[in-house]
Write a structure and sequence with these properties.
The protein is built from 25 helices and nine strands. It is α/β, with parallel strands linked by helices. It has a six-stranded mixed β-sheet with strand order 6-7-5-4-8-9, sandwiched between helices. It has a three-stranded antiparallel β-sheet with strand order 1-2-3. The longest helix has 34 residues.
Length: 708
């Protein structure tokens, strides 16, 4: 029996306030032993596709000119140590532990740092996020943490770095499918010389469209379909590599000595430095190990990478290099040329299918980072579909999926040259790695309290290595490297515009919020009447009541006899027990209550309006006795219960606010542009209020203009 997808529109502020604190380490994972191995098998089809298929395009992306045996040995040594240091040490042992509530990726690191240092620029988040608790109890803030708290410039730089990393990873989700499928399909041109490049591009586009249309079925179902393909690829390519090593150059593994790297740069100097722009592609997709953490768990990803992916890549690149040492001018087709004739077509079929699967890893990672950004309120609200009843991180977004599909197809059809896409890809890969290194260093210092010597060693090794890679790929800016920057600029503008508008809106709401005393004064006005009926008033403000309430009372000159202020809170668990779903408290005024409705990512909120009303009324009734002194228990509690039930019988109404900025003559040009852009996005994005199945006749929307 299959479990239906649950569509949940995430309401960002409540998420942060309800998440259980962690120390930045992975949350407990339930699958053990056999469960981890089975899940590791599934990761092959989702997490590692981009990484393990990189041999398709690494050598063809290098601008080699009459390479020698020593050049190839140096290149292989660089790739081996890049895979070992970045793939094994950095991602599979360090970064994978820096999750935020089980989620990985750039924005997860940013969220983790914000919660620990209380530095989030968007104050609505920092005020509601729980502080992290280290083993042994709360620790004093580090000097670095205090510096970020004091410096608005440092906080803005940190936000910019996080946004850039997120935008680059999304760009990776566009370029990985394009280059992987295009490189695999290019294998048709060797046996069929008349098969034109344009036909390869069109066929690649068709394959990608089919892949994106499959995303709605969810990661789990897709991984069970794709994992056998990646298992075949991960096993077959190293076998071909071993054959190639034995036939062409059995001594290839002497290149594991780092001195071949030194000799390579001494001999080639600038040309060797420029070749790093292609070499860096050997580690492409490694960020998915971290970004896809919410789809699987830490142990399963480590088992799959260390047990299969890493050995497969080492042997495959060794076999490719051994072949190229004996055939130095075949580097432009460095993958298919090293495949023996008898197995060419089976490998081509597996390679084509594996390239399709490779696209899945970055598509899944893109869904994850978009969801994190929406949850943290740094991205316009899009539809988030939770495709698993047990894994909170397994998500799918129809809008994002369609945009990715259009952009991937456009990249293939417009920039069909694999080298141009490879240059763009190198920019994305190197920058994302460098940004992750910077954020991980901050996590080590401020959260893990790692010894200074180890932090310095980590930072120097990875920052220098990745910085050199970044400097090399930037030389390819005019040859396709501008593509990810164009994509990232557009995404960053969207993210910053949304962030700026949300910040200004929150500042207004905090300044004009209604507290209980102010509400009491408004209700004490003789002109304000308490009318019969039950009103559910929806608000997102955690400390106080929305300014829309004051606007409503002043203009309607009334408030219902029983009014319940409801906040919807999203929890990081599949389903919330019925006895914990609705929490009610009295707010100190007659007939005025506060209510929190808690729900998990697999809960369906499409209640019948009457059912929700009855559940809240039952919760109000249940909370009343504990609020009254024993001597007045029976009389006062029974009176309030009668009042609530009588109000419900008189009629139920659900009130929510709909706000816009009023951009007057006094606004500066920057505010006019950014707030105007925010309003365009806000009017076209999803509502923050999930669909509750409320009858239309019971809904009221109260509009209010916020003065910018």
């Amino acid at each position: 029996m299959t479990t239906p997808n649950h569509d949940i529109l995430i309401d960002p502020p409540p998420l942060a306030s309800s998440a259980a604190p962690t120390n930045g380490r992975n949350l407990p994972q339930h699958p053990k032993n056999g469960g981890d191995v089975a899940m590791a098998y599934r990761t092959l089809g989702v997490v590692f596709g981009g990484l393990v298929t990189s041999p398709l395009y690494v050598y063809p992306s290098m601008p080699l000119k009459s390479p020698t045996e020593d050049d190839y040995l140096g290149i292989y040594s660089i790739m081996f140590w890049t895979l070992s240091l970045v793939g094994v040490l950095k991602y599979s042992f360090i970064a994978i532990n820096a999750d935020d509530q089980g989620e990985g990726g750039t924005f997860a690191l940013y969220s983790l740092l914000c919660r620990n240092m209380n530095i989030s620029i968007l104050h609505s988040k920092s005020s509601s996020l729980p502080a992290l608790i280290l083993p042994g109890g709360p620790a004093k803030q580090t000097r670095l943490g205090k510096f970020f708290e004091r410096s608005i410039t440092a906080r803005r730089i940190l936000l910019f770095v996080a946004m850039l990393g997120t935008c680059m990873l999304i760009g990776d989700g566009i370029l990985t499918p394009a280059i992987s499928v295009l490189s695999a399909m290019d294998g048709l041109r060797a046996p069929f010389p008349k098969f034109r490049k344009a036909w390869v591009e069109v066929l690649s586009a068709v394959v990608l469209i089919f892949l994106f249309l499959m995303q709605k079925f969810g990661t789990s179902r897709v991984s069970f379909l794709f994992s056998p393909i990646m298992g075949a690829w991960t096993l077959s390519t190293p076998l071909v590599g071993i054959y190639s090593i034995a036939k062409h150059y059995p001594g290839i593994f002497k290149a594991l000595s780092p001195h071949y790297i030194i000799q390579f740069f001494q001999r080639n100097r600038k040309e060797g430095w420029l070749l790093l722009g292609g070499t860096v592609l050997c580690i492409t997709g490694s960020e998915a190990m971290f970004a896809d953490l919410g789809h699987f768990n830490k142990r399963s990803i480590q088992i799959a990478f260390l047990g299969t992916i890493y050995p497969s890549l080492v042997l495959t690149y060794a076999g490719q290099t051994a072949y190229l040492i004996r055939n130095p001018n075949d580097h432009n087709d460095g993958f298919y040329k090293f495949i023996p004739g008898p197995v060419y077509w089976p490998i081509f079929i597996i390679a084509t299918l594996a390239a399709i699967v490779a696209s899945q890893s970055l598509i899944s990672a893109t869904f994850s980072v978009i969801k994190q950004s929406v949850v943290l309120d740094y991205f316009p609200r899009v539809k988030i579909v939770h495709t698993s009843p047990s894994k909170e991180g397994e998500v799918y977004s129809p809008e994002v999926n369609h945009v990715l599909m259009v952009l991937c197809v456009a990249v293939i059809l417009i920039f069909g040259d694999g080298k141009d896409i490879g240059n763009a890809f190198g920019v994305v890969v190197s920058l994302v790695m460098l940004i992750t290194t910077i954020l991980l260093t901050l996590v080590m210092i401020t959260i893990w309290r790692t010894p200074v010597v180890l932090v310095a060693l980590y930072f120097v090794v990875f920052f220098v290595m990745e910085g050199v890679y970044v400097s090399a790929v930037f030389t390819k800016f005019s040859e396709g490297g501008w593509i990810p920057f164009a994509i990232s600029f557009i995404l960053a503008f969207i993210m910053f515009g949304w962030f700026y508008g949300r910040q200004r809106k929150f500042d207004y709401e905090i300044t004009h919020r209604i507290n209980i005393d102010r509400l009491g004064m408004l209700l004490s006005d003789p002109g304000v009447q308490r009318v019969p009926g039950l009103c559910f008033f929806y608000t997102n403000i955690q400390d106080g009541l929305t300014p829309i309430l004051g606007h409503y009372i002043k203009n309607m000159r009334s408030l219902h006899e029983v009014t319940v202020f409801i906040t919807l809170r999203y929890l990081l668990e599949p389903k919330v027990d019925l006895d914990k779903r609705i929490i009610v408290r009295k707010l100190g005024l007659d007939g005025v209550y506060g209510c929190t409705v808690q729900y998990g990512y697999a809960d369906s909120l499409e209640h019948n309006g009457d059912d929700l009303s009855c559940q809240i009324i039952d919760a109000i009734v249940a909370c009343l006795p504990s609020k009254e002194p024993e001597s007045r228990l029976t009389t006062d509690a029974e009176h309030e219960v009668r009042e609530v039930r009588r109000a419900k019988a008189a009629g139920v109404v659900h009130v929510r606010g709909k706000t816009r900025f009023y951009i007057g003559e006094g606004c500066g040009r920057f505010d006019r542009v950014m707030l105007g852009f925010y309003e365009v996005m806000h009017s076209n994005c999803r509502s923050a209020l999930p669909a509750l199945g409320l009858p239309l006749r019971h809904r009221i929307e109260v509009g209010m203009l916020y003065e910018a």
